[in-house]
Amino acid sequence: MLRKRCAGPLLLVLLTVTGCQLTQSAFSRTVGNAGAVFSAASTTLSYAHEGKITSAYAQASFVNYQSELDGLDQQLPSQQGAPDKRTVQHLLDLYRPAMQAVIQPCLEESCHWQAQVAALNRASQAFLMAGG
Amino acid sequence: MKKWLSITLGIVTATGGFLDAGTIATSGESGARFGLGLIWACLIATVAIILLVEMMGRFSAISKKTYAEAIRENFGFKFYLLPLLSEVIAESILLAAEIGGIAIALSLMTGISWRILFPPAAFLVFAMAWRAPFDWIENAPALLGLVTLSFIVGIIALGGPSHQLLSTLWKPEVKQGELADYLYLVAATLGATISPYLLYFYSSGAREEHWTSSSLLLNRVTAIVGMSFGSLGSIALIFLGAMVLQPLNMQGSSLGELGLSMAKALGPFGALLFAVALFATCLGAALEVVLGVSYNIAQGFGWEWGEDKKPVEAARFNLVLIIFLLVAVAIGLMGIDPLQLALAGSTVIALFLPISLFPFLVLMNDPQYLRDKTNGRFSNIAIICILLIAFVVAFVSIPLEILSGGG
């Protein structure tokens, strides 16, 4: 009888506990995704200059990266599971120059595309690390 | 000679028509995030679709009825509305994703934003669905879709997978906190492959082409060989994602990103092949979805239908086609990324699969329709198990994804 009574709440507790382990916090997920998109942007820019993709392909890809990353600076501080202000500020400091590269990628030889790739890589590594 | 030509064409059509925005999205993301750890889901889904397609062709060839007609006849009109409703909800999301996929493919070729190209892509689907004869719709995008086999060439050009990567086949690397994502992708993989629209389309196609009991060999070979070859494209995309995107910490969260793996393997030509494959598969799937739903509604309501008929001869069938396209365009114009739409649509399909396919299992065991060609016990058990897996996984993973802010 006791077993039957305990089964329901126990199952609920088990599901809640397992549920917590099944998913990441909203903050970890958001920064992890952003890190992956920065990495994709860096690879796209490098491939465009190495001649592996056309500039049309790169341009189309950057439109998608931009829509994936837009508004992240506003979301980040208020997300569930966000760490201390300093860490968030550090990420935001890296986000801005990287986002600049995503909005206006340097697809010509005349501009300094290597600096953009470096900014994207820095942001990617920091965001991926913050995402665990 | 004519018979073998039909069989060859059937295989080619099934091979080229296997992939769509949903399978491309799930395969690419699976490889990028979990290595080869989701190939098992792809294989299960392939077995399921082979069984279902074979059954659907057999049913229509022997009974001379389509699936929707038989549901209404056998279960009544009220019951018929249940699978219809689930179908309309899931497929409208998927159609928006397919049209978005066409727009992105054109965007990758031209550099013009996919949002600008979305309306022309929708118009292309409308024009083909409105005027093209059935065999054009069935064969033209599928023939172009054979480009997906170049994904296998990409894997070879990259030197094949490492031993370490191969070990993820039987030991998937699922990090702490990523199990919900893993389950979500399992559900999406099953839902993307076992799409009911394909079955409504196949069933109606069998009637459009006047299949009889002598078409059973063509049906079986198309289902087994065509679908098996088709799934190779999907598996190849998982390999490419795992070999190229995963080491670079990418997640394959946009379609252009998935093409980078082909660019690494074959340069700009590889990227172009990816864009062409995306265009062909999404165009073929968009036509199948829009026609599949229109067939379903027209047949269930007892209206005139047929792609080879003039619009005026099947006016309500064509009206449904236009309305359904407009609904998908409205969803697409909300600006949601087509890849995310495709993933969401595939998961919703997985959730509705038991509703969509339960009547089918009953009908496949009815000798009034199939005479001596009813289902065996093995086929019934296999399909029930697969549908239940898809349903349970989708039922568990969707709330988890929503709770964690994903999905």
Structural write-up:
The complex is a heterodimer of chains A (132) and B (407). Chain A contains six helices and no strands. Chain A is mostly helical and 132 residues long. Chain A has one domain. The termini of chain A are far apart. The model of chain A is unreliable at 1-14 (pLDDT under 50). Chain B has 17 helices and no strands. Chain B has helices at residues 2-16, 21-34, 39-63, 67-75, 77-110, 114-131, 134-144, 150-157, 163-166, 179-193, 196-208, 216-245, 255-301, 315-332, 338-363, 367-370, 377-403. Chain B is globular and about 55 Å long. The model of chain B has no long low-confidence stretch (mean pLDDT 87). The interface between A and B is large, with 38 and 44 residues.
Features:
heterodimer; A: 132 residues; mainly alpha; 6 helices; 77% helix; disordered N terminus; B: 407 residues; Amino acid/polyamine transporter I; 0% strand
